[in-house]
Specification:
With 231 residues, this protein is mainly alpha-helical. It is 61% helix and 3% strand. Strands 1-2 form a two-stranded antiparallel ribbon. It is globular, with a radius of gyration of 20 Å.
């Protein structure tokens, strides 16, 4: 929601959509695919959608949303016809792992930037922000806490880390607490807001192709994962 709302999309609707689609995809992965994977929107595609397509290239979020919808249909077609699997199989294993690392570093950079640990610097492009207070301090606390819990192999380490970090953020003024329960924001402001008038343009073709390319690389490492028996 924080990334996509930069395009002018309603943040509340984005929040509800993110929760609903993540829950639905994770439940489907467990019940249908029988795999213990949690799914959520890809940060690489979110950033490309907001910062490149909308903010840099100047297209509307409705145009970008239409491109994502078309790309998703093509991606499903490539998957059910096993074309995507054939593409993955011809890519060297070292390249698959390096793609995963590259995407991970990119997502980590987005998180560090959002937490103001990494800030803009005209001389060096990036530099360390003020880590003694605010979001940066809270982020460091959360990383250290979650790391310790993971090292200690505490069940639900990441979830515990998220909850505790959120609570710590209240007195620090970072977490905005508005009550325990409330009705979720409506998804109506962004639901099916497509822009069909430009679907046969060269601009749409380029955007759809780029999104498909990014999506394929985002899922290469996921498809190469093989669960090992416990013995």
């Amino acid at each position: 929601p924080n990334i996509l709302s930069a395009t002018g999309m309603d943040r509340g609707a984005l929040f509800s959509t993110t929760v609903l689609i993540s829950a639905a995809a994770t439940i489907l992965m467990g019940l249908y695919a029988k795999l213990p994977f949690a799914l959520a929107p890809g940060m690489g595609l979110n950033a490309f959608f907001a910062y490149t397509i909308c903010l840099i290239m100047g297209y509307s979020w409705q145009f970008a949303l239409t491109a994502v919808f078309l790309e998703g249909l093509i991606f499903i077609l490539l998957t059910v016809t096993n074309v995507r699997e054939k593409i993955v199989d011809i890519i060297p294993e070292t390249l698959k792992k390096s793609i995963s690392v590259g995407i991970g570093i990119y997502i980590a950079f987005i998180g560090l930037s959002s937490a103001e640990i990494v800030v803009n610097n005209d001389a060096t492009l990036v530099s360390i922000g003020d880590i003694s207070q605010g979001p940066a301090l809270l982020c460091i606390i959360g990383i250290v806490l979650s790391s310790v819990l993971l090292i200690k192999k505490v069940p639900g380490a990441l979830l515990i880390g998220i909850i505790v970090t959120t609570l710590i953020g209240i007195p620090l003024g970072v977490t905005q607490f508005n009550g325990v329960m409330s009705s979720p924001p409506s998804v109506e402001p962004i639901f099916c807001k497509f822009e069909w008038t430009k679907i046969f343009t060269s601009e749409m073709f380029v955007i759809v192709f780029t999104l498909l390319f990014v999506d394929l690389f985002d899922t290469i490492e996921d498809q190469s994962v093989r669960l090992q028996p416990n013995g």
